[in-house]
Batch of 4 targets.
Target 1
Amino acid sequence: MNVFGVRTLAFTHYTIAQEKYSTRITTSSHIAMAIVSFFPPELLTIIFKECIADTILSTNDDPATRTAIAFSQVCSWWRQVASIPNLWIRLRIDICEGCRNPLSSILETWLGKSQGLPLNIKLRIGRDSGADFDPIRRLMKEISRWKTLRIYAETSRLLSYFLNKIEPAPALETVYVTVRQSGSWWHYQHPLDRLEQLRNRFAGSPRLCWIGIDRNVIATTETIPLRGSIFHLSLEYTAEKYTMVQSTGALVELLQELPQLKSLNINIPFFDKESIGTPHVDMMNLTKLLLEGADNVFAFLPRIRAPNLTNLTISRSGDSLSRNPLLAKSILDFLKASHSPPPIYSLELYNVPEITDQDFTRIFALLPSLEKLVIHNSSISDATVQELILCESNVDGLRRCLKRLELCVCENVHEQNISSAVRSRISRGAHRSEAEACLQVLLVDCPPVRKYDIKFLQPLVNLCI
């Protein structure tokens, strides 16, 4: 056989192999589509929702950007699922540094498939990416549909540039702002030059009720829009290079302008020294409070009057290595500030080794409605935990209501006391309903519980080790 014949034969074998491969692919696709046809639409919707939730519309030519679009074109079943407008209302847009790849077409597809429903937008603007090109301009045309807006800006200049472009957003309910880079000393002392827009630009958003400010941004009365309508406020100054100290007086003034506030999250590394004569703030509608940071942050707690508080979380930062003997006093002063203790049913304390057993007893005595108690990294003792479970010191008060107890890194708590206290609680609660007698106990990194105790307690109480 000559060379030409060999080549012809090789080409024939190659063609046959390609046809067999195509046949296998087609058969596999038909099998896959046949399997999909047996799935209920609800399951397909959940799968597609998970797929689309991680999709980032990026100016980089990332294939993942178009995953949801490709998914929706596989077969009639997926096309039917993809036609649900509610699946396309979340937009995660990443405008990267130095990228100018077209994003308009896929963004247009996303906006079209959402069919006029309210939009939840997460927008990241990279350094020097510029906020004045097609994706931003296209989003501005849909500003009447904005429901949630989260802006992650590399610099304060980019944040200001974007805010200056915003027009009234009548449906907007949530605004979250973060600046990654720390500014100069002058900017820390004069923060309003870049944040007055936050108040002015959202003045036309009557539904706005949630404000979140993170990293290198300082919240004052001059930066919060529509102050009387805000129900939820989150301040998280967690940038590593953040050196500006939040003024206690300024924060009090800010909270005084938020009479309808229901939840407050404060994570601030440093407060200024306590100013003599700084007034307290009455927060009659506040139900959830989270206070986190260095030791001197907790001195702010007694300044708050929250008679209707139901959830309180106190967390010392991991950098606070020294003990703070005033932490327990701050908590007690806060609980005693009102005419009657607030109806707190959930108390969470993190990194509080300085709170003594006596302080714990005093705190628990002021919480007659407590149902959930979480304590991490504490020196709380066996006797205090046993008293807590057994209701010995206050039979008609708090401990009878306790339904969940979570202890993590509490080295002075041992299994004998947990098991014996739960046994006694169960025997004493025989006449109670199942809901009243039920207690969930979670132990993490505490001295081990014996297998005998676990076997005995497991049918009677939700015990997790």
Target 2
Amino acid sequence: MNEEKYHRWLREIYSRSRPKGFHCPDHYAAGIRNINNRLGLTEGGLFAVNTTMADLEKLLDNATLTKTNRTHLRSFIKFKQYEEQNLKKS
């Protein structure tokens, strides 16, 4: 999984339905980079292969994240679930 794939997924959702409250895909991709920087994550950050769903859900409770960071993180968790479902299908 990588940032480019996440960005394409966001663009696909945005072009299909433009969900209420959903900003442009660039905003969400920048949000994930912000979370990586805020938490000091390196080596791929949230896009690292060994990042589990449990790890991501624990991050939602991290005190250093802002409300906006949590919104972006929830979007990323949905993407990760989508990716895992696709892997199971193939």
Target 3
Amino acid sequence: MEDVYKLINQARELGRFWSDIRLPEVIFMGPVNSGKSTLINGLLQSEICPVDASPCTFIPIRLTAGSAFYAEAHLRGKTRRIMDKRQLADLVRRKAPGKVTGSIEIRHTADILNWCSLVDAPGSGLSTETDRLLDKLVAGSPAEIIFLLHQRGMDSSIHSYLNGIRKLIQSGNINISFWINANTGLSDGSTLRETVASLRQLLPGRSGVQLISTKDHKSIELLSLYIKTSMAGRMLKQIEKQLRSMDGSLPVRLGKITGIKDDGEFLRQFWDLHQDARQLLLAREAISSLPGAGGRIHWLLNDNARRLVLLDVPSGAALKQRGKHSGQPLKMEQLIKEMAGDSILNKIIPAPGLKDLAEKINNRKCVIEVVGTFSSGKTTFLNALLGESILPTGDKATTSSTVVIAYGSEKKAVVRSLLQPVFNPVRKKDGKYVPDAREMKALQSLINDKEFFSVVADVEIAVEKSFHRIPKDELAAALEDTLSQLSREKKAGSAGKIASLLPGFISKKAPSRENPPLMAVRLTLSNPLRFVFDLDNPGQRERYVKITSPPYSFIIENVEVFHPSMPLRKAYLVDTPGWDSPDNPRDVKKPVFSHRADIRLHFLHGKHLASDVRDPPESSLPEVYYVINFADTLNQLEREKASLFIRIKLPAQSGKQPLPYPRVYMISALEALRGGDEGFSRLVRQLARGVEDRHLRMLRETGEQLGSMLGEALERCSSGRTGSGDSRNAAKIKKYLEELKSLSKTSNMPGGNKLWKTPGC
């Protein structure tokens, strides 16, 4: 990192010489509670910006360099001196997220402020007013925007906001970088890939995303270096024109100096010339080192991201810990982790390459998604696979949210809410306003739930397109007014039909439309809700069923269930709401097929196959298994008709050719749950083979990559290109190659199905 620090020191010295340069501005933006203020405090190495579990930054806080702490607030056209940090926190927290005016200016002694001013901006999506204020900040063409995301990555509201400011960013040629704050625990790395993919479409050429943690000192130090290096490059570009002018004037000045006869004047001007020449050489050296320093920072950030994803990578002492098990073949992931922690081997093979391979193995489980109509037995099948009735089932629709089922030592469920759930109680259809009974009922139920409504911090309503704030206690009345208005219009419409049959001189003109009704309601919670349920406890299981059913399912962002079932060691199971479910929180006209699924189980009810059959899109890559449930109620002829329906009629609905060899399984999920069903057992065995095949294929590919890396390293050792200790290094590499060879043999051995032992098979 010497090249980075050298560039920073050179730029610092040049900055003193070119003292008239205006410092650039860096704005910290991102969704509410993503950790922007905490990150700035880390950069300042001082608790300056107020931090709270609920949103507390409603106006911009601008920080600049100063000899001591000084702060003043500019609110409603008045300037107010802030005496200390406690008063600052009180003032910021008292500022309501309503009409946003003014700002807070702070001077501080932190070193980072000698490079740029920092702006702690309100969170995006907090309110319409704050979003407009953020637009103004972006329109001011800052030097850089540090956009901090939650650990979960991008959601639809962030995507929508970025889409709204995309033109401002592109037209202003603003540098924007995206950072995921992994401050809630270990990251699995998936949000990095998904966020990059989203940004690649949204902001082409600006899709770089880094993983940091506001709880990690090294992350903050690297971000500080990134900002200083970026600002150094910006400063050098600013003075480049002046440097060229100075370079051209040096020979002329030298010629004039040689003609000076006064010794004192000669020495003075010659010294000035010497200083200018020195600054010129320093600037040239700094400019030439910029690409290398920038590349080094990028590499360090990538390495830091891998560290945050793989914090459990063993140290170099791992070799000593093998002990008596050293003769046994290690698992592939253990072998790679051991190699990544081998400090000697890392001098030959870069650790990041090994960590990439370890990440590939650790984070890539097979994803099995279950889709279909409601009450087709999807959840009952999953219960049979887990070996017990742990997920709610019934004759009516019971799955209102997508549920991800993963391996865990304890049986528990984790439910997380949205920060800003949006409801559409009225929709416009064919030019008419139509109430959505489900959305209206859910919203009214949540308003009447005093415990839930107490955590609602902000209420916004939209009559047409834009949202505006209203007091919480006025929302119920606004909904009642909307219902009354729609009811009057419906009666007026009926009267209009009758009047149209009467002569013109008798009929009366229908009353004109009132103001447009309430179209959308956005609730902002003081903090996203998180519920954890012990599924071994009957009472908590009942609470889990309640919280994942309407009206609460309308505010849920994700549901995770953990279970110590053996199949979950190598696969995630995903349960989805029925396509035609009356309790679906949104009117979904098309099924949302996950692009991450490896295997999709397409469930159909044996007694009514054609009720609502939907075929995955062409771009969907997973293998599709067609599962006909309630097969125990079908005779042989009905079974044959069901198979024929899947092979010919189902693809015909999408204008496709018949499926030549569809995978069709006849099962009874209920019988499987009770103790045994041959069709279920066949399906589970096929799933086990599919999961195992994918795992083995991934292991083989990883083993080939690892073998290639070790082979190249061994060749370098044999040719003497790695320096001293070649023979010792070669022996260590050969040892790893032998272990890899033994792993390659065992990875091809059968027996993977043993992991999938369930009561039914």
Target 4
Amino acid sequence: MSDKTTEWDEEQPDFYSPDFIPARKSSDAQHVLHSPRRIYEYLSERVYGQEEYKKAISTFIYKALKGINSEKVILIAAESGTGKSYLISVLSEIVPNIVVADASSMTAAGYKGVNHVTTVLNKVDTSGGIPSFVVLDEFNRLLAKGLSGWSDTGLLAELLVLFDDKDVSVNAGTEEKPFWVNPKNIFFILLGSFSDITDQKKSRPIGFSTDIEATANTHRPQITKGQVLDRLSQWPELIGRISRIIVNQNLEESDYLKMLKNPKYSPAAKLEKELDISIKVAPKRMRQWSKDAYASGTGLRGLKNAILEIVDEELMKDADVKEINIR
């Protein structure tokens, strides 16, 4: 018997098994939002690991929906590819009024472009009194602008105003006059990899071997809360407005393999539900994908792209395909 045949004799994840928990309908949201524990359980059914992140964000959301606005800002530091942005997308299934903005391209008022700090409020519904949540992705890159000489533009100063309860003038992005918004009922989730910190800590060889090693192994060292606090110490007024800082643990090769094998977390399982087809992945291929995701630093995105590439090829061959076997 060939190795390939033996390989397929190994136990395969059944993405149609009763263990797979589909996404809840929006009508169930109120039930889930009843307590931090239920929010956490909802996230845990769909997001692998990140225990501290899931618990902290569950409590943060619950307090905000209860009208407690003493904790308006939370910061999540995590390596790219660990799923910090994916957790937000899952959260948006049950939490109303979540807006995600790219902080890396934001500019201060008076500079070219339409992605000014305050214009993110154009997307926020402040009419009904329901708490709104603004997610600033790539937040560490916004801070990097300050380190590069942008501090005198008032970029961070404008952002800090949003974290307070003072009225803010917002440009509608049209010929209409600016309008005023009070951010009292707006809460902020700051996401960032802070990869520039860990990049500085890495020791790199000198000479011809540098590029070879960088290509073969690009995952970064684990960032620590102390390193994040040290970086933020350059803006004491910012630290004073952040109620909590969460640092996610980096994922290992074994974590990616567990995700692929578990129908609750596997990207293949999600594709099955979306396309209504069966996708079976050989254990050998799972191990290779996990190794590549870890070594390349692409993480969860790398896994998704690897699966999607093959599935798209099969759909191109036969749009009515019902089963895809990936060896």
